[in-house]
Amino acid sequence: MAKSRAGLAIVLSEASHARLHAALTLACAAAALGRPVRLFFHGESVAALTAGRHWSGDATYRAAGLPSVGELVENALGMGASVMACQTGLQLIGVTAASLADGIETGGMVAFLADAREDDLLMG
Q1: Are 73 and 24 contacting, i.e. CB atoms less than 8 angstroms apart?
Q2: Which of 15, 25, 85, 100 is the most buried (most CB within 10 A)?
Q3: Total domain count, the chain
Q4: What does the alpha-carbon distance between residue 27 and residue 31 come to, in Å, rounded to a whole number?
Q5: 66: exposed, middle or buried (C-beta count within 10 Å: 0-12, 13-18, 19+)?
Q6: Nearest to 112 by CA among 79, 78, 89, 95
Q7: Got the DSSP string for the chain?
Q8: CA distances (Å), 33 to each of 6, 18, 38, 78, 123, in order?
Q9: String of b and e for 28-47 (b: at least 16 CB within 10 Å)?
Q10: Is the pTM of this model over 0.90?
Q11: Which structural domain, as residue segments, surrounds residue 16?
Q12: Residue 12's domain is classified under what CATH number?
């Protein structure tokens, strides 16, 4: 089977711990394999990009030796993933772009899809 070098673009659409964790784990795994990764946090999922956010599911995952949602976001950024926060989502949860970590862009779905034109697209 031929290896794909296409990028992987993931749209995160919920503020559900399990869905965020799964999508971010997938993003980190793809980046570890050398695949370009783009993440778009849509709507309330942008809460995962706020500093110091603690998710109720993190304690259970940590007890099993797994990283927290925040650690996965940091790992993805550290592995070169492109991360974009939905501007509407920021307004929805009352957060400003200035409160996001360095390296996180803000934009809309059109800009994200334009950048991810050649990527495999997943909904997470």
Answers
A1: yes
A2: 85
A3: 1
A4: 6
A5: middle
A6: 89
A7: -PPP---EEEEE----HHHHHHHHHHHHHHHHTT--EEEEE-GGGGGGGBTT---TTHHHHHHTTPPPHHHHHHHHHHTT-EEEEEHHHHHHHT--GGGBPTTEEEE-HHHHHHHTTTSEEEE-
A8: 12, 23, 14, 14, 20
A9: bebbeeebbbbbbbbbbbbb
A10: yes
A11: 8-123
A12: 3.40.1260.10
Residue reference for tokens 């659409």: 13
Q: Is residue 103 part of a domain?
A: yes
Dump pLDDT digits (tens) for 57-112: 999 999 999 999 999 999 999 999 999 999 999 999 999 999 898 899 999 999 99
Name the amino acid, one letter, at 63: A
Closest of 72, 91, 84, 78 to residue 25, by C-alpha = 72
- Which residue shows structure tokens 């706020």? 50
- Residue 106 has which token pair? 């803000």
CA distance linking residue 29 with residue 87, whole number of Å = 27
How far apart are alpha carbons 105 and 45 in whole angstroms? Answer: 14
